[in-house]
Write a structure and sequence with these properties.
alpha/beta, Rossmann fold, 2 domains, 8-stranded mixed β-sheet, 5-stranded parallel β-sheet, 13 helices, 19 strands, 33% helix, elongated, multifunctional enzyme, magnesium
Length: 409
Amino acid sequence: MTTGKPRVVLGVGAGIAAYKVCELLRRLTESGHDVRVVPTADALRFVGEPTWAALSGHPVSPDVWDGVAGVPHVRLGQTADLVFVAPATADLLARAAHGLADDLLTNTLLTARCPVVFAPAMHTEMWEHPATRDNVATLRARGAIVVEPASGRLTGADTGPGRLPDPAELFEVARRVLARGDRERGESARDLAGRHVVVSAGGTREAIDPVRFIGNRSSGLQGYALARTAVARGARVTVVAANVALPDPAGARVVPVGSAEEMRTAVLEAAGDADAVVMAAAVADFRPAAYRGSKIKKTPDGEPEPIALVKNPDILAEIGEHRRPGQVIVGFAAETDDVLANGRAKLARKRSDLLVVNQVGERLGFGTPDNAAVVLGADGSRTDVPRGAKEELADTVWDLVAARLKPRS
């Protein structure tokens, strides 16, 4: 029976992280999605069938022989708007990559013609094994989105990459992939597949003494929206995050930094093989000339001591000057007045392909869930983005980037 709701098949692999997927299922159903849970047989050793059935409102079975009159091994994949597999174990990735069809989930993967997302979770050694890396590359080459696992505490005392990302962030991936699928069909919905993109986010802090710093109000929301939308479009994403107090975007590798110098080092390293670099972070133009090793005290008359400043490196201009062939560079300009005039001057000075110009101020731009901007192109183009969710601005930026990327050989 057709419900009119977006139809999601939630595949569950046999990993300890299966318990986290209950939260992902709850978020999907409560936001109006019709979810059919398809676990592997061993996944039910971790979370039982009654739990999945109660949370989804549908019967649950891993067996192709249950309800065989309805041909579920074909129908589920054919009618789904999204297939989302979490946790995707090393075994499940291998079976999917090699086209095996020995249970209901792998049959569904073979019949699906909608976007397919895998959220791997396993021990670090398994994730980094050449066999797993080859299977991931195969799935990505076929158009599947395989999000990068998070780093952190694993089963037992192990720590490293292989942890299932936060369910709230996995839900954002599902939501963005579905939104993208409604807007674009086929390969255009995953137009960044096989690409590596670097996004800077947040605001740098330049230390004055052990307790004070020069900083700004950037929260990192726009940079993280850029990261989420790039993951949903199939990209491998590196985020260089300066002082961001937000959950890591699922599927992105996050490199935390503090100062402009630290950001410069991290961005230049990540940009070495990147197809596109988007500098959404608010980088301080100046830093104290000297760091005080102890807290600065008031002078006897109560007047503050002057703080000498020196220029910080211009990361965007440096990347623009030393870009590798075919690399697309995007800058951001947060302005308070003469927005377009200042933006055009910055675009020429920074040697960027695109510059996202937005007005900032009290409750405007920084720390808000919405944004409005004008995207200026080095080719003379102008794209106006009306106020809306930061994900919408992010999608517009990636539309413009994708149009400028050279076809892969």
